[in-house]
Amino acid sequence: MAKIATVITDMFEDVEYTDPAKAFKEAGHEITTIEMEAGKSVTGKQGDATVSIDKGIDEVNPSDFDALFIPGGFSPDGLRADDRLVNFAKHFMDEKKPVFAICHGPQLLITAKTLEGRKATGFKSIQVDMEYAGATVEDKEVVVCQDQLVTSRQPDDIPAFIEQSLKLIK
Amino acid sequence: MAKIATVITDMFEDVEYTDPAKAFKEAGHEITTIEMEAGKSVTGKQGDATVSIDKGIDEVNPSDFDALFIPGGFSPDGLRADDRLVNFAKHFMDEKKPVFAICHGPQLLITAKTLEGRKATGFKSIQVDMEYAGATVEDKEVVVCQDQLVTSRQPDDIPAFIEQSLKLIK
What we know:
The structure is a homodimer.
Chain A: E1 3-7, H1 14-26, E2 30-35, E3 41-43, E4 50-52, E5 55-56, E6 67-70, H2 75-79, H3 83-94, E7 99-102, H4 106-111, E8 119-120, H5 127-132, E9 136-137, E10 143-145, E11 149-152, H6 158-167
Parallel strand pairs in A: 1-2, 1-6, 2-5, 6-7, 7-11, 8-9
Antiparallel strand pairs in A: 3-4, 10-11
Helix pairs in contact in A: 1-6
């Protein structure tokens, strides 16, 4: 069983949280939702999903988690405006723990300056940002880099994203 | 009188469109709102402002405009997923016409690969993206580069943004 830190705030892409989170839980893993503040709820951009935040960023230590999940939408851009969230994400990349980022999720990894030399994908609008940040971007449904970083582009890619993510947290 | 192309879609930061647009019009300039499609309205992320789109991107030629205005919010990220909008913005940068970009506005200029060697600012969350794209980022309310590119960070900076923008379209 893996402890998966999930960083999320308002305007996340609803199914990019709900579908992977359901699959991870069904596989026996534990999801902890983390935002700037604990005790609140955040809402997806489609208005379909509301997520209760388990922990505020000041209450958690990245060393206590085995993997990081970053759902997309406009949530990652909100998170990366806070240096604490950027540093939290950087830990997982530096320690080579599994990181699962979909759609705009890689934005947080760019701001953490952790994509240099990595192979990855992301939503179309951020692909040039990712290239500038030193990543080799592949326009594929899922890209797995060094058995550690799993990235996908958009909601259509969710099944492949889940499949490859689960392989890294057996 | 300058003809100012304004590229905008849903989820723009309301006052980052309304305040500069009002000031530009009061100074005698003409604003043309441009989106992927004509004949629709787009809504700000605060829900305070709705903007009628004057022209679809396929109906306009960038040569017919004197300047480009890119309001912030999540609008620029929506626009830059469409290559036609990216190419439209590139024209103004390549031709050294005045470009006014606030908050997330510079995202469109990153995707157009036009920030290399430029001095600029932007919303905190995109500053690392801008640096990776080759810009020298200054954390100031307004940055004017080569009497052509005016950038600001956030709504608080709007008065300085308007003042410097107007100087370039006397």
